[in-house]
Design a protein that fits this description.
Number of strands: 7
Helix content: 25-40%
Strand content: 25-35%
Structural class: alpha/beta
Strand order of the largest sheet: 3-4-5-2-1-6-7
Length: 145
């Protein structure tokens, strides 16, 4: 079975539909026997307090990168602020996520055979491409919307 890194903007305990889909995908891949690791953001979008309490975060690289576990799946969280109405600041938040997650994909996460990357945002493909080149692994870029 494969070691898969799922690089996604949202994941549990975020409460949006894409987070739910990515969480279900990770759990299903794990159930099929794959070793799954997730690289995502800190909870920032429709955060459900009960889900957050079930999946506590601990500092890994200080507050820049935190770690949790979801049913045995290691989840790395690049720190970004809670989503707000600030359009310009959101752009900076995305850049921050891409920088931290790319560095984490290179140095914090163990080895992986495949990188699975859903969009949005479209710019996440750049991080996937860089990780793919430097780690010498293929990536699947799932563009939706």
């Amino acid at each position: 079975m494969a070691k898969i890194l799922l690089l996604t903007l949202v994941f549990a305990p975020d409460g949006v539909s894409t987070a739910q889909l990515m969480t279900e995908l990770a759990l299903e891949l794990q159930a099929q026997g794959h070793e799954v690791t997730v690289l995502t953001t800190t909870p920032h979008y429709n955060v459900e307090p009960e889900a957050r309490a079930r999946q506590p975060l601990t500092n890994h690289w200080g507050r820049w990168l935190q770690k949790s576990s979801l049913q045995g799946i290691p989840v790395y969280h690049a720190s970004i602020p809670v989503k707000g109405d600030r359009v310009g600041a959101r752009l900076l938040d995305y850049i921050r996520f891409h920088l931290i997650s790319t560095l984490a994909g290179l140095f914090a996460v163990g080895g992986y055979d495949l990188l699975l990357v859903p969009s949005p945002p479209l710019t996440i493909g750049l991080s996937a491409w860089i990780l793919s080149l430097l780690r010498r692994v293929p990536f699947i870029y799932n563009v939706q919307e």
